[in-house]
Amino acid sequence: MIQDILNQFHISSQNSGVSTGTQWLKADGAVIDAHSPVDGKHIAQVTAASRANYDTVVTTAAAAFKEWRLWPAPRRGEVVRQIGEALRKNKQALGKLVSYEMGKSLQEGYGEVQEMIDICDFAVGLSRQLHGLTMHSERPGHRMYEQWHPLGITGIISAFNFPVAVWSWNAMLAWVCGDVCIWKPSEKTPLSAIACQQIVQEVLQANNVPEGVCCLLAGNRDAGEWLAADTRVPLVSATGSTRMGKAVAAVVAARLGRSLLELGGNNAIIISKDADLDMSLIGCVFGAVGTAGQRCTTTRRLIIHESVYDAFTAKLVKAYGQLKIGNPLDENNHVGPLIDTDAVRMYEHAIAEVQKEGGRILVEGGVLSGAEYASGCYVKPCIAEVENHYQIVQHETFAPILYVMKYKTLEEAIALQNGVPQGLSSSIMTLNLREAEAFLSQAGSDCGIANVNIGTSGAEIGGAFGGEKETGGGRESGSEAWKAYMRRQTNTINYSTQLPLAQGIKFDL
Length: 509
Fold this sequence. Notes:
The chain has helices spanning about 1-10, 50-70, 75-90, 90-100, 105-125, 165-175, 190-205, 220-230, 240-255, 275-290, 310-320, 340-355, 390-395, 410-420, 435-440; strands at about 15, 20, 30-35, 40-45, 135, 140-150, 155, 180-185, 215, 235-240, 260, 265-270, 300-305, 360-365, 380-385, 400-405, 420-425, 425-430, 450, 465, 470, 475, 485-495. It is an alpha/beta fold. Keywords: NAD, Oxidoreductase.
């Protein structure tokens, strides 16, 4: 089955990872070996970009921007609409490839491609709504307004956990705004990126889109560093760890460029004494174990009212006992593998640190062995009773480890929720209107996403996605996130016969 999918996307045993849109360049950088965490098998090789390849891509993209920005926005939107249709036709195959290469469940693989389709639909509508404002001038016979112009090249650095969706959040919006894009995918999931490039390529050719509007730049860390340092790239959108984001932000800021950062999360759900515990259980378990705990919005902490703590943790322990771990292409399984053995080592380290700091294990973790788990990447979802101040709890571990703790008052719960360096997603489970509104108030959650009676994971594309503090402050996807890809220009038009100055200043000759 997987070989048929690779053939469908023209992925062979050896592939170039460099494209300027419809042209695949002869890459001459390092060789990236793509392995699946599902079964540990080697899938294919991808040759990464050299510095010379990189310069060719940027030069081509810069030339394309000069033409692409002049296409009317609705015409650019029509290209994106056709990309959405192409993704619909390839949803099953691309979803399976994402699942196999990354290790997320098949349903989540399909869901990721659906996110791409949804953002295409959103971007098509946006292409006719890139609104500015009209302001009244203090000077007679004058009109003021603002408009938005494309920035130029958008560099997109994406992470392995969403190997295609996050690229599309950026690319589809950037394209309708008039920008061109250079995508540096994770070196852990290069084949999904190549498949996307193949899908888009046919649409670009059919619409005579300038070469360089959609570029792919497979590579290791150095390719991301080139993008961050390049003054020809006005915007770098980077998704990944806080450590990586800080490095990118520093380099981009040093040249006064723009960075859009989507970094770590340490997300909590508050379980109120007034919560519907059965409904809460579903949100908590999926939030904690979905994608094997490798989402930036994964539920990592549960803050449970003391009066329902024992009852709810008992429900959790029972639910964890029913989880099925195994091949994510088997839709009967709930939890697939971690991305690689490095992630497994971080998982084991985190559990050891919990115990060292005095935590109590409620559901034992561990690495699974046997023929079905031959890749060495399958682990047991773990639950640990902790204190919020533990050093390991303050950090994001990309693995299915759920920390639980008690609270007495809502104020204490919100303080615990906010008491970590990250600020991405948060939730409260309560049927108490006052509690819900307090959680959403100025004195409530300090995260970019705050939910009531749903989990921390599974955001829709209609809202702006992103977080505060060490999550980076960036916003992608819906709402007015499109403005990050454009530059604002204020215009004043004098249609009178006089030239009055603002603020009443007199300057007569």
